Amino acid sequence: MSKTPDDPARLCEEARRLAENGEADRAARLFREVLALGDTPERARAALGLAVVLDDSGDVTGAREADRIAVSTADPEYGPRAAYHLALTHERAGEHREAGLAWQAVVDFGNPAYLPPALLALGRLADDAGDFETARGHWEEAIATGDAEYGPVAAHDLAQRLLERGEPARAQRVLTAGLRVIDRESAPYAHARLAVALGISCLDQAIGAFGAALGDEEAAADPEVGPLATELLARTLPLRGRGDEAREVWRRGLSDPGVAGQVRARLRRDFGGDDEDADPADLWWEPVVESAVSDGSLPAVAGEAFGALDHMYALLAVRYAGGPGADPAPAETHDLLGRAIRVPSDYLWGPLLHESFAERLRLATGTPARPLPPGWPDA
Question: Domain of life, per the record (predicted)?
Fold first, then answer.
């Protein structure tokens, strides 16, 4: 009995239904029947269907052969889809050269539905191979497609490389183009990712501008420009993980007799103090704090100071909590200890220190409630 012209289409549809129902072997037989019919309009579709079924069954070699049959038909829809599938099988196996050839085949078909992921993949393969210029070309083409899914990813990849190469202005243009194709409501994560990268590129551009200002001897020696550029550069560099460079910027500014005073004033702009006329040299810890700010070690210094204070406070407070009868010289010693432990009460962190001691005392005495009066230690 002869086959009718509609038979290949019906066979493909039946094979698809079988594959979706988990009957892979029967589906593969039907797809092969279509291929055996020769050059029919359904040949590419059947070849791709067979490739997917075989790949799912673990027959990667057979799947690739079927993909190549579909690609060879030059079908504008199933050809690029088969090349796409072929590329994925090579990527899974770590076969980058073969994957690149398959992705290029996708691009050569020119089907706009499959161009963006193929261009993105080619860009990453070139980047992994160390060929930045080729990668840049593929990424730029992916962005130019305006695809809302793959365009922003390509923009992010390209911008990262441009930032690493010291080209923040170009990175900004790329990221701005990427942001234009994103629907913020439907893809908030992708939008936020590019927005953060754009902010980083602005930081890098600012770092370059501040550094350029300090690179000019006249500008660096200017009592207004030099100290300002020093502070801005030194405070921005750590945001990009460049703390060592920031320390060197402060050091250079503080060692320049012409601007050292203004630089020191900017370094100390956040320091506390009620008396503006007080001499910092009168406070032994001021040089320590100043040095910690300039070299980025302030958190470590603060941790050491609070740790020491917590330890000493606990020692004093335990004695005081014992009451006057616990001291050899009750009145004098008890009053002295009381004044000592009240010192931090006016600071913002004072209540936290009191809470810390109360918990220590509770654990030490084994009592379920804190054995301290309300308002300790001031009440």
Answer: Bacteria
Of 299, 194, 193, 171, residue with least CA distance to 238? 299
Task: Give me the phi and psi of 51, to 5 degrees please.
Answer: -60, -45
Q: Specify the pTM.
A: 0.77
Give CA torsion, residues 341, 344, 348, 351, to 10 deg: 0
As a three-state string, the secondary structure of 275-325 is CCCCCHHHCCCHHHHHHHHHHCCHHHHHHHHHHHHHHHHHHHHHHHHCCHH
Q: Residues 138, 122: contact at Cβ < 8 Å?
A: yes
Whether omega before 377 lies within 30 degrees of 0, making that bond cis, reads yes
Domains, the chain, with CATH or none = 1-111 (1.25.40.10), 303-365 (no CATH)
Q: Taking the mean position of all CA atoms in its chain, how far away is CA 73?
A: 44
Nearest 5°: phi and psi at 378?
-85, -25
For residue range 144-191, what is the model confidence (pLDDT) as tens digits?
A: 999 999 999 999 999 999 999 999 999 999 999 999 999 899 999 999
